[in-house]
Design goal:
Layout: E1 14-18, E2 22-27, E3 30-35, H1 42-52, E4 59-60, E5 65-70, E6 103-108, H2 109-113, H3 133-141, E7 169-172, E8 182-183, H4 195-198, E9 206-215, E10 221-231, E11 235-246, E12 250-261, E13 268-279, H5 280-284, H6 299-308, H7 311-314, E14 329-336, H8 337-359
Antiparallel strand pairs: 1-2, 2-3, 3-5, 4-9, 5-6, 6-7, 8-14, 9-10, 10-11, 11-12, 12-13, 13-14
């Protein structure tokens, strides 16, 4: 990720709209909406379980989401109307819900669970066993076992750790390969997330932290998926993080970072996807106090420690210590918003041409 630091920018015009369950900001042609509700009820869980085809995590927030919508550089989305004769606070002005965005990107728990592996484990799936599973199997498959069982038993028909290879998804337009993202150019500094800029103490215009699901893996660890978003005067930044701890086996992280600058030209969305894993023993050895295991339950501490280890030991699918999980490694992609704007312009031109052709016909 890039380390360059741009100068601070002035706070642009923007609008906020908040309810008990949703928060929205419109800024620089964007509308960003976070939805946060309590855990799904029984009927919602049954419906989602039927849809995704697996048992749901213990804590499932099926109504929670983060939705990004981009309306184009010429849109007035985020620009409060001028009302010289009114003292109404621009932050209280109703946001128009009926505009059609050029691009929409979403994060939802149901879609993440659809990306959890189902069926027997195959190479690359990264499926794991709990710490005592080998001993458990030997007690039932060894020569002295009273009730022998086959050596391989498919205990669950899906990845019980709920590991999703899900970085969010483009829902509009819905016909774009890879959601419109292409591989980043490593020589182009605009195709990287500027860490120094994000570390600057800029004003936070919008912030949300949204849980999607959590499970304690039958007291064998932790599986948790969350979203964080913050909007500054010059940019938006999202961290979508899956954290896995399987006691006495491994730790795993799957992070998706989304960055967009409101002032860079050309306008691009950077998507940085990274996956790490290492043994439980390795991360436990990094505890500042070996007697205090509480950091092992902290997703932020786990992520920092995984990122501090050599990539050859945490991101290499071919490593002897690796599960071979296909989520390991780094993938940086960009979406060129100018291309979306061009596509919309071509579509509008086609519609206008069709209308002109229709006007050539006189009524009988």
């Amino acid at each position: 990720m890039a380390t360059g630091c741009n100068a601070a920018v002035a706070v642009p015009p923007h609008k906020r709209s908040d309810t008990e369950t949703t928060s929205t900001i419109e800024i620089s042609g964007w509308r960003l909406t976070s939805t946060s509700l309590p855990i799904s009820n029984g009927a919602e869980i049954d419906a989602c379980q039927a849809e995704v085809g697996i048992n749901l995590p213990e804590m499932f927030f099926g109504n929670n989401s983060l939705v990004l919508e981009w309306f184009g550089p010429d849109s007035d989305v985020g620009t409060p109307p001028t009302r010289p004769d009114s003292e109404e606070n621009v932050n209280d002005i109703d946001i128009e819900p009926d505009r059609q965005p050029l691009w929409r990107y979403e994060f939802r728990a149901q879609d993440a669970l659809k990306c959890v592996h189902r069926g027997p484990s195959e190479p690359g799936d990264g499926c794991v066993k709990v710490g005592y599973s080998e001993a458990w199997l030997k007690s039932r498959t060894g020569p002295a076992a009273e009730s022998p069982m086959p050596e391989m038993v498919e205990v669950k028909p899906y990845d019980w750790t709920y590991t999703p290879l899900y970085p969010g998804h483009t829902s509009l337009p819905n016909n774009m390969d890879n959601g419109g993202f292409v591989a980043a150019n490593p020589e182009n500094p605009q195709h990287a997330i500027p860490i120094a800029e994000l570390q600057r103490p800029d004003p936070i215009l919008f912030y949300a932290e949204i849980p999607l699901y959590e499970d304690e893996l039958h007291d064998n660890g932790l599986s948790i998926l969350t979203i964080r978003i913050r909007v500054m005067p010059g940019s938006l930044f999202i961290l979508f993080r899956f954290t896995l701890r399987v006691d006495d086996v491994l730790f795993r992280n799957f992070d998706t970072r989304i960055y967009h600058s409101f002032v860079r030209n050309p306008p691009v969305v950077v998507r940085d996807i990274r996956g790490w894993e290492t043994s439980y023993k390795t991360l436990r050895s990094l505890l500042p106090n070996p007697e205090d295991l509480s950091p092992l339950t902290d997703p932020q501490w786990i992520a920092r420690m995984l990122a501090s280890l050599p990539e050859s030991s945490t991101m290499d699918k071919s490593s002897r210590r690796s599960t071979g999980w296909r989520g390991l490694g780094t993938r940086i992609e960009v979406l060129d918003l100018n291309k979306l704007n061009k596509m919309d312009g071509e579509l509008s031109s086609g519609i206008n041409a069709l209308r002109l052709d229709e006007n050539k016909f006189e009524p009988v």
